[in-house]
Amino acid sequence: MRKTLLICAMTMNVFNASAQPGDAGDRQPVTPVQRSEAGRSVEHIFTSKILGMERAYSVYLPQSYDRNPDRYYPVLYLLHGAGDNNLCWQNKANLSGVQNMLAASGESAEMIIVTPNACTTTEEGGWQGYFDTPQWMYESFFFDEFLPFIEKEYRIITDRDHRALAGLSMGGGGSAKYAQTHPDMFCAAYCMSALMAIPETGGIGGRTDDDPDSPMNVLNNSVNENSCIRFVENANEATKEKLKTISWFIDCGDDDFLLDRNLEFVTAMKQAGIPHQFRVRDGGHTWEYWHSGLYILLPFVSRNFCK
């Protein structure tokens, strides 16, 4: 079930994509070919049986989505960070404006971009994170309920070659781990300022609570149990071969408190022989950094869609 809450129209131009519905083998490469009006961001509500509550999500739709009802599109699942929600990429990083501009210049293919909400309010329990805990079965919700619903509700090309992950901070670690554990589902993963493991200085952002069952400590424990670094270090040869089929991009600022964990992840990837791109740019754990990262992220996933 969903309810329309918000529609934001943008005014820049984008290009059309040539992907068509049908079997995966019949679909054409996703390439920018035709100028159109601007894309837009919408917000909806999904009722989750697994989580036992309504969850908001945001979707960026190309303008041609409404004009061409027979056209199908690649999809990017874009994850937010701790303490934020599905609206942050649009409201704080101008996601629609950046994608419209990059599509207009031919640097990004038309795509559908989906941002779920992985945080609850204090009244709802204060749970957050992308991994399953006894109180917050979010990973099960994402793969068993949310992703199938999205790819049925919207005209999405539902094969691996047209599905990608990206995220920042907590969402960067979530995108890395989702790609690690579901390599058959995603062609690319862009991990920005990623929470690959718990920092040595304590919990996320140096925060811990006295109550071991508090939402913050539950989140810290779930990240520690799902360490992306340890996953690579412990991977057998078969798992390494699967990870090599994903296009990886790790992006972290030189002043980011998570830089050391990202360096450890990259070191583990190198030792495992898993190809990846790595950028250390000027900046910290800020929306200025993440906004600028969209200009790298969106062309990166587009190139992988076009393969």
Key structural traits:
alpha/beta, nine-stranded mixed sheet, two-stranded antiparallel ribbon, 13 strands, 22% strand, globular, disordered N terminus
Shape: globular
For the secondary structure, the number of strands is: 13
Task: Output the helix-strand order.
Answer: EEEEEHEHHEEEHEHEHHHEHEH
Q: In the CATH hierarchy, what is the superfamily?
A: Alpha/Beta hydrolase fold, catalytic domain
- Average of per-residue pLDDT values: 87
Instruction: Report how far the terminal alpha carbons are from each other.
Output: 35 Å
Cα Rg: 18 Å
Largest sheet: 9 strands, mixed
Q: Might you state the CATH topology name? A: Rossmann fold
Tally of individual domains:
1
Determine the strand fraction and express it as a percent band. Answer: 15-25%
User: What is the CATH architecture descriptor?
Assistant: 3-Layer(aba) Sandwich
Q: Spans with pLDDT under 50 lasting ≥5 residues?
A: 1-36
Name of the level-1 CATH class: Alpha Beta
Plain-language structure description:
This protein is of the alpha/beta class and 307 residues long. Helix content is 34%, strand content 22%. It has one domain (6-305): 3-Layer(aba) Sandwich (Rossmann fold). The chain has helices spanning 64-67, 88-93, 95-104, 138-153, 170-181, 215-225, 228-233, 237-243, 259-272, 287-305; strands at 6-9, 14-17, 32-36, 40-48, 53-61, 75-79, 112-116, 132-133, 136-137, 163-168, 188-192, 247-253, 277-281. The chain has a nine-stranded mixed beta sheet, sandwiched between helices. Strands 2-3 form a two-stranded antiparallel ribbon. Helix 3 (95-104) crosses helix 10. The radius of gyration is 18 Å and the shape is globular. The relative contact order is 0.14.
